[in-house]
Structure formats: structure tokens, C-alpha cells
Design a protein that fits this description.
CinA_C, CinA-like_C, 166 residues, alpha/beta, globular, Maf protein, CinA family protein
Length: 166
């Protein structure tokens, strides 16, 4: 029995198959999900042929030390920002053997939100080797910590799949 729901596992399998088809490796850079994206990918037996590594960078210090996210970006935009999500995704490519990376940084709740950055806001980054990183923000709403994290994993896997099928 898996700790992930069948929909997430099906999506993770599609991501792994797409990476295999392209001969590409994957890395994740996670804050609010605490490793759940890498966990979903590695829940599937045989994933080691395309999953290189995951970075769990919950603190700003970890983002800076492990992924080379600039202190200036963290101070200017905050950890939950598209700028930081892009730097996380890029940093994961640089610090790994991966060809594609996804990053997430957000406010899962129940607290920690503000008017500008409400609970349920997650910033996603995506980087493919040789390309500039991209980012997008999604507001899932104040739907509870577990649901925000689950929806974040799903969205991140969808982004990886789209990039690998492109």
C-alpha cells in the first residue's frame, strides 16, 4: 500500500516514463512539500534510473547553501516568490546531474500567510538544462495543509510531465 493516492502515482509513473523516453534525469528542490515530490517519484520501483536527487530546503539558509539562492532575492522578494522558485530550480540543475528540475516554495498553512502572500500560495519553478528557468504561482486557497501539499505535488508532477513531453 502506498502513502500516495493513485492519481499522484499514475502521474509520477508518466513522468518517469517520459524521462526514460528522453534519456533525462530529474531533480527536485522542495520547501513546503518537504520531499513529497521526490517521494512520489521514488515510490515507484525502478525510478533510480531517472531520478537523480531531491533537495529539501525548508529554511532560507538551506536554499542559499544547497541551491545557491541569493540572499538578496530572499530579502527582496521573500522565500515564497517566483524569483526564489526560479533560483531554486536553476540551483538544482547546477548542483545535480539532472536535465530537468522542478522547485516549490509556498505557504501550506495553517498560519504564515499575509494579505500579499495568503495561505495556499505556492510558487513553482522549472528548469531544463541549457534553458532559463521559468516560474508560476498558484493560489490553492486556505484548504488545509495536507491538501495544499497534495495539490502542490500534483502540479509539480504535471509541470515535469509537460516539460518532458514538450
Amino acid at each position: 500500500m502506498s502513502m500516495f493516492d493513485p492519481q499522484i502515482l499514475t502521474l509520477a509513473e508518466k513522468v518517469l516514463d517520459a524521462a526514460r523516453a528522453r534519456g533525462q534525469m530529474i531533480a527536485t528542490a522542495e520547501s513546503c512539500t518537504g520531499g513529497l515530490i521526490a517521494g512520489a517519484l521514488t515510490e515507484i520501483a525502478g525510478s533510480s534510473d531517472v531520478v537523480d536527487r531531491g533537495f529539501i530546503t525548508y529554511s532560507n539558509e538551506a536554499k542559499n547553501q544547497m541551491l545557491d539562492v541569493s540572499s538578496e532575492s530572499l530579502a527582496r522578494f521573500g522565500a515564497v516568490s517566483e524569483a526564489v522558485a526560479k533560483e531554486m530550480a536553476y540551483g538544482a540543475i547546477v548542483a545535480s546531474r539532472a536535465d530537468v528540475s522542478v522547485s516549490v516554495t509556498g505557504i501550506a498553512g495553517p498560519g504564515g500567510g499575509s494579505a500579499e502572500k495568503p495561505v495556499g500560495l505556492v510558487c513553482f519553478g522549472l528548469c531544463q538544462i541549457g534553458e532559463s528557468p521559468t516560474a508560476k504561482s498558484v493560489e490553492f486557497g486556505d484548504v488545509g495543509r495536507t491538501k495544499v501539499r497534495r495539490q502542490t505535488v500534483q502540479t509539480a508532477l504535471e509541470m515535469l510531465l509537460e516539460a518532458l513531453e514538450d
